[in-house]
Inverse folding.
């Protein structure tokens, strides 16, 4: 049974949980699981069954009561919502450790994110390849952008250079930035910025440690 | 004026915004700014002034009306809430590109996170140092944990090994894990896990790209 879905407006909170559903459903699919009840999915994901039902209601297309979810169908529907049914060419600016770590995630490719090149200012990195993908020098960037269809740029460079480089990217047609620099970027409204602030996450960890200690002292 | 604060219960939503306030206040402090109005902070952070006032009300300790916030005081109060007034020793499990990238962030040290060692299974990495911090082999891990006061372990290893290694860490006293492996860890309740799922963030970016395209088509 395939239910034709209208993609209505889905709340931000639901969207933020979708990658996690997608990850779990992908694991089930890899394990050869064809269907799963909301109860079993709930146990696996440590989310209440009612939360799961509510979230996944947004996508219709799940089986009858007593059948549970069709794993493959749901995985593919969530993938479509997340835009993973299309390919996205991307480049990495900054071929240091973090840039190389990202370049080495072959799993991004499976989700449709195709790395086309890395760029750096360090002449020692000129011409080396990571998984067969060449590192180019920053002075080749503008030409490269004009001759290739690049949608996303990952910024793995220090904060001090990030603003300047982001401006160059945007002037040359980049409309989506995956930002790892430790700063917020202020860019035109039609440019999408998704930031990963590693130290923010470390601070959340540290906050939770203090809270646990406060509880113990009481 | 120093206001003695009682650290009351603060909502999760406020807590999740604190690292960003801390980052902006730190930048102001570096720039020599002593005080700032909620209006100016609002413009800088692209958050409404009323949101800022509401959030920071949790900390008392800001100046009179017409004065604005005392940057240094507020920075230090938020730092305390986040547990950054204490030092936290940590280790990194996995000295590949991502592990080395984390080891190279000297700024973690400024916030009190002191890297004590990295561990890996790759014999080629044995004995090398990153910013003077040695990479050890995994078979030295348990002894190291017993002889050093380590609070946090960052896991920058593949998903296939993450669960097994997390169990070893927890059995040997680690109470906080900063998880970069592409899987959710199920650990005893008193162990704090903060996960950074890079592909989840890439999927959010991709979702926002599709939404923008849908809007254009209309």
């Amino acid at each position: 049974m395939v239910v034709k879905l209208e993609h209505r407006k889905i709340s931000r909170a639901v969207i933020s949980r979708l990658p996690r559903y997608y990850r779990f459903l992908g694991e089930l699919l890899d394990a050869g699981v064809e269907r799963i009840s909301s109860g079993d999915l709930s146990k696996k994901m440590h989310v209440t069954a009612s939360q799961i039902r509510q979230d996944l209601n947004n996508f219709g297309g799940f089986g009858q009561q007593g059948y549970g979810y069709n794993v493959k169908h749901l995985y593919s529907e969530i993938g479509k919502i997340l835009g993973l049914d299309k390919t996205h060419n991307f480049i990495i600016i900054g071929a240091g450790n973090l840039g190389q770590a990202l370049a080495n995630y072959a799993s991004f490719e499976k989700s449709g994110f195709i790395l086309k090149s890395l760029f750096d200012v360090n002449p020692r990195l000129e011409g080396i390849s990571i998984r067969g993908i060449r590192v180019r020098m920053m002075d080749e960037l503008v030409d490269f952008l004009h001759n290739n269809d690049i949608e996303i740029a990952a910024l793995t460079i220090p904060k001090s250079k990030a603003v300047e480089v982001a401006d160059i990217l945007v002037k040359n047609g980049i409309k989506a930035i995956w930002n790892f620099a430790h700063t917020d970027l202020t860019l035109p409204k039609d440019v999408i910025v998704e930031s990963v602030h590693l130290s923010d996450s470390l601070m959340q960890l540290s906050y939770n440690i203090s809270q646990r200690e406060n509880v113990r002292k009481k």
Remarks:
- Residues 47 and 129 of chain A are 42 Å apart (CA to CA).
- The longest strand of chain A covers residues 113-120.
- The first helix of chain A runs from residue 12 to 30.
